[in-house]
Amino acid sequence: xxxxxxxxxxxxxxxxxxxxxxxxxxxxxxxxxxxxxxxxxxxxxxxxxxxxxxxxxxxxxxxxxxxxxxxxxxxxxxxxxxxxxxxxxxxxxxxxxxxxxxxxxxxxxxxxxxxxxxxxxxxxxxxxxxxxxxxxxxxxxxxxxxxxxxxxxxxxxxxxxxxxxxxxxxxxxxxxxxxxxxxxxxxxxxxxxxxxxxxxxxxxxxxxxxxxxxxxxxxxxxxxxxxxxxxxxxxxxxxxxxxxxxxxxxxxxxxxxxxxxxxxxxxxxxxxxxxxxxxxxxxxxxxxxxxxxxxxxxxxxxxx
Length: 304
Fold this sequence. Notes:
Elements: E1 10-17, H1 24-34, E2 40-47, H2 54-64, E3 68-72, H3 83-100, E4 107-111, H4 122-126, E5 136-141, H5 161-170, H6 175-182, E6 197-199, E7 206-210, H7 211-214, H8 232-241, E8 246-255, H9 266-281, H10 283-290
Parallel strand pairs: 1-2, 1-4, 2-3, 5-8
Antiparallel strand pairs: 4-7, 5-7, 6-8
Helix pairs in contact: 5-6, 9-10
């Protein structure tokens, strides 16, 4: 579909805010521009637990950007101490907003707001409408595809990567090698010119859903087979089981490198080498001090 054809559609961009003050205004500007070909672009963000100036920036954005709104849930950390469970709770707030909205937006865009969409463009977004057989399109990166935590794809990532890494570690494999085998080795480079990749779940910092599919989901931290998984996985598996088609669109580029996928930096390689040397001397100390994701029930991050 040509870019001009998008002018008949309305889109709602949703996301979570916590300590995003440094990137928030620019991220909103980038998203607003990237979806500028649509008839109407609206925002609804959910904030919690911020210690920086995120709330004041949200208030300023609401006063200056048309169709921009947000809600603050205050301090949730004590009531919901697990990070992924807290995120799932917050995501269900914007999901319920979409379900109850009297404005039937054609598409819902779920976007991270911590700087991972800085390369998103209007042309990249338009590539999603070069075909019509999808219910959700998710982003790709110029560097290694980082978000294997939210990924489920046959022959690639078929179970939670952190659960797999923990299982490898508890079975006796070196903790660094466990991380490499379960996580790093799965972070492939997807060429921008590649064919679309059908998946059961994906995110990568940005996902575009047709509204009728989006409202069928529910965010949680467990599936029928596993517990303490990325909140995107149960959501996406649920709508796939209902018949929706999800894809990674390789041309939908949102960034290149960040802390999760920039493995070529000398400092990153040196850090990994030091961790590996320490793991040879004391695997348990390495996990306790440097790789808590291998012992926690849910991981707070994807990088090592």
